[in-house]
Write a structure and sequence with these properties.
The chain has about 220 residues and is mostly helical. The protein has two domains: about 110 residues; about 80 residues, Cytochrome c-like domain (Cytochrome Bc1 Complex, Chain D, domain 2, Orthogonal Bundle), CATH 1.10.760. It has eight helices and no strands. The longest helix is centred in the first third of the chain and has 33 residues. The radius of gyration is 21 Å and the shape is elongated. The chain starts with a helix and ends with a helix. The relative contact order is 0.12.
């Protein structure tokens, strides 16, 4: 399954899960009999949605091989919210249900905020006879770009550009690295994070030069 389709399934399942939880929390506060009826009706669909949510999320992280700091916070909030929500609905504790909802909404917000943030760079050691600029370009690329574009430039994670067929010149590549690109519909197209505040000018120039060497 492609990473684009996985991302679409993941985000749709996240939104459905969030919608279900908002409705359940509202019913716990307003109408417990309706909540019990809804729980019976949505038990199986909720299990399916939760499974798709977790499996696709883990699958995407495995394909990517990298993570963002905001996603780390998101995962922490999700794992805290799970036991809180179980206790809240089992014992019908309104305050706990509200707390769990806040945690889930916070996790969703972290996920949205993370979309334009760079990944946590991997540690790279470059050895060989290349000059300092080439080594800097390789190191910067592997640390920050290879998780989406691949070491060979052809990974195309969530519709990332195939760098082996790119025709952009040096200055255009530098602008893209500094400013990033916006995501768009469908959900799977995430866009490229802006690295203008993550990389210094020397690193941007070096990695832009290295990207051009990946072309066939």
């Amino acid at each position: 399954m492609s990473s684009s389709l996985l991302a679409t399934l993941h985000l749709i399942s996240v939104q459905l899960f969030l919608l279900l939880y908002i409705v359940k929390t509202f019913l716990l506060l307003a109408n417990k009999k309706m909540l019990e009826k809804m729980v019976r009706i949505t038990k199986v669909p909720e299990m399916i949605i939760s499974t798709v949510f977790l499996v696709t999320g883990i699958w995407l992280l495995f394909i990517l091989g990298a993570i963002k700091m905001l996603i780390v916070i998101k995962l922490i909030l999700v794992f805290i919210s799970i036991p809180v929500s179980i206790v809240a609905f089992k014992k019908q504790k309104k305050l706990l249900a509200l707390l769990s909802l806040v945690l889930i909404l916070g996790a969703y917000g972290m996920g949205e905020a993370a979309k334009k943030k760079p990944f946590i760079p991997t540690k790279v050691e470059v050895v060989g006879n290349a000059d300092d600029v080439a080594k800097l370009g390789i190191k910067t690329y592997i640390a920050n770009c290879a998780m989406c574009h691949g070491k060979d430039g052809m990974k195309m994670y969530r519709d990332a550009k195939d760098l082996t067929v790119s025709g952009l010149d040096q200055s255009s590549i530098e602008i893209l690295i500094r400013e990033g690109t916006p995501g768009s519909w469908p959900y799977s197209k995430a866009g490229m994070p802006a690295f203008g505040k993550t990389l210094n000018e020397e690193e941007i120039i070096a990695v832009s030069a290295y990207v051009q060497t990946l072309r066939k």
